[in-house]
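Give me structure tokens for this 451-residue protein.
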Amino acid sequence: MSSTTTSTTSTSAGTVILGAGIIGVSTAYYLSLSSSQPSPSLSSNIHLIDPSPSLFWSASGFAGGFLARNWFAAEVSSLGALSFAEHARLASAHDGRHNWSYAPSTSLGYSAVAADKGVKKRGDDWLRSGTSRAEAALGDTEKVPVVSAEDLQKKTPAWLRRREGDDVEIIGGEGDTAQLEPERLCRFLLGEAEGRGVKVSKATEAVEVLRDGEGVIRGVRLKDVVTGKEREVQCSRIIITAGCWSGQVWEKLFGATSETVKKLPVASLAGHSLVVKSPRWAGAVNEERCHAVYTSHAAFSPEIFSRVGGQIYFAGLNSAAVPLPSVAEGAKVQTGSMELVKQAARELLGPADDGEDDLEVVREGLCFRPVTPWGLPIVARVPDEHLGGGIRTKPGAEGGVFLATGHGPWGISMSLGTGIVMSELVQGRPLSADISALAFDDNVVGKAGQV
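Here you go.
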């Protein structure tokens, strides 16, 4: 919905970011960082809005936190590499190991029975098909790294339950992967952004785009979802970073303006997870280097990530059939699905068959990942012609409507790079990564019907 008014209130280049998950807080962090250079007061003109009463209840809080440098399709390889390097830089600059459990990771493929080794096929659609993201680790012509049996033994985690005749192999190159705890990183980024003046509004939704007499965006109308009270925020730039809810935000603000406005082709894919610990391998997990283990199970393809501090993240059971709640905080785990995850965890992490089950569940989680039909995110400025209703934006760095969503399983890994690029994009600066294949153009709009 949009509103036309003849108000002559001046509009500064304020920015409203809709969605305070990891993509939103990353964007706020880097935008406030660059905005504070000439004048700290500019950061106070950045507003971060989220309808949840509390933050990080979806993938930004419950995802595994696995990071990769080069496990991506060609279209996002530049963004992925930028983000991986920035994760390392930020962790070095702000003690990421202590503050959000950042650590290098060794990635392994595990099979309970000996498997043929050879070329790994790229699987950019692995998440939907129920297979493992490890399929995307290597290109079609690259082979699994060759290591000695002794070296492989050293790189195999002590917490992984081994069986006679099983098979372990290293996937990915040295220094190509890392691990962190997403919620703790999000809270660091949010705290830093707020410290630079970014205004954060929780339990708040954008309900209307405000325009001046010439149809140019001058602000948004916000509504408190608890009290129903409304207020206006002046801005000339709107950035939608609402994850799986991005389509709903887009429809509310722009879909009602014209029949020609297409739906934003972003759907949700749910994933259940556990965080567990055990006295058997507490010391073995708390090492300098973490591990990521990809394997298969009767029902799904588990992903197992050890974390600094002795806990292990266990996930991999994904479904597009789990309904998306109205806000992230309303998500509830499904008992049947969680039992499948727990059973797989007992089989792969538990003691020997005659041992007592000593796995302690630290927490259960359900997160929703935003996915597009073609498997790539949208990171772009929206051309005015796709806004509908005669809505216009100020040119260049003075205004615009922007999208950063649809990252699928790679939202945590690509978060910092996306924040950097979005900050540069909205300010009209040279981009640090090639996002030309992630544009919101006629081709993307035409794919909306595939959702």
